[in-house]
Amino acid sequence: MHNINGSWIRGRLFGLLIVLSLISWPALLASIFPEISYQKLPSPLDLFPALVSWVLLSTIRCPYSRLLGYAWVIWYFVGVLNTLSSSIVLGSYYGNLRLQEATEIYFWGCAFYFAGMLLFEKTAGKRKKSVYGVSVSSLGIHPIFRAVLLAFPIAWLASMYWTLGYIPILRGVNIVDDMYEIGYGPLYPYGPFLIVSILFAAYRCMSAGTHKRRISYGVIALLFIIISMADGKRAFAMVAFGGVCGISFKLFGRKTWWPILPIFASAMLALYVGVLLLRGDESGVIRFDAYEKMMLVGVEFRDFVYTVNYAKPGEIQNYSWAVSSLASVTNNLAMKVLGLDKTALVNLDSAHAWATIWGSNFGIRTGILSELWFSYGGMAMPLLVLYGFLSGILIRGLRAVRSGRDLIFFSSLFGLLVLNITSQSTFTFGILPTLLYLYVVVRGGSDLLHQRNLRRNRILEFYSGLRDVGLDGRSERLQR
């Protein structure tokens, strides 16, 4: 009873701290950015939906869903710091951005997404003894496929180097303007396999029985993450980070919250910023005052704020979330049979539409919430409820898996959910078929080879039994 009361008191105190933080957030921003007019900052009333979001999130019991919710909430605060820093450092069209409407849209979107996950938990989510799911009993990947997963990142990098004659991220020059136009080699389209390779190494690291094996696979996982960013892009690494969190929840339970998650997050933040600096910033000059540091992370939210200030839902030209998302997940051959141009339809996505707004040669990402809002306006909110419910279905599958193989692939999907608040839907839907094909091959091939080994062992046991019977019979005759 004493422990229950203690937990209740701590929960109420934490909730009170959140409320006070939200109320004081505008004043805190005004003190950090004295150059910014107070009229451009969100008011406590604008943050009311943030309070609604937090109440819903605090009601969710599933740790996987809560992690997604925390990521969405934290992203707002990181993005606001980036937005206001950009208004000071870059000026121009970033200098007149107002945060009020963007704040309300974002947190109402969070509230509806959290409501969807909570709805699933209350209606369809089965109560299990552990909120982290059942234990994993076996790996379920044949040694041949284990070797392929470990070899692929090296082959992918070698293919890139063989094609280009260099590693883009190590050139020491600004590669931002060129990195989406370069042909990286024959293995480059299979980049989503890198996610699975990283998660395989991470799973082997976290499930290893010896300290030596744990270190060895940990180093391999880190190497694979670095390789995945060799082209200057960080999407695969960020998906893998979310997937590693899913694996950690499954294997270590509540220990993931502390100290594992802070260590993972710090390492990924260092790699994220490191790649940003290595590939070169927009101005070609790297400075390190406080405002510029705040601009290193959160640019996607800043671009969402910009769009809210200068555009309305339905006004963005050559943009269709539904068409581009459906086209990205559909097989190219099937679309050719139907007489459809997959590339043209995929290019109706947010990345290309927002690039046109900025006059940029490469895609601009603003996240799933922004995509749905500028496609459907207020109707985006019930869609976010549906999205939250579907997230719950995927998480239920992740909690239920019993093999390392299924855990790795479900965790890759969970990683896509984590990244969706900053990414574009055509990236998410576009790599789903590739991950599905790989899963079918690994699962089908592993099961087939396992069955073959079982049949071979049975045959060997049968002949061994016959040999033993023959020897025994001959021995009995000799005794007579």
From TrEMBL:
The chain crosses the membrane at residues 12-33, 45-64, 71-93, 105-124, 144-167, 187-203, 215-230, 236-253, 260-278, 373-395, 407-423. Keywords: Membrane, Transmembrane, Transmembrane helix. It comes from the Bacteria. The keyword Transmembrane helix applies. This is O-antigen ligase domain-containing protein. It comes from Caenimonas terrae.
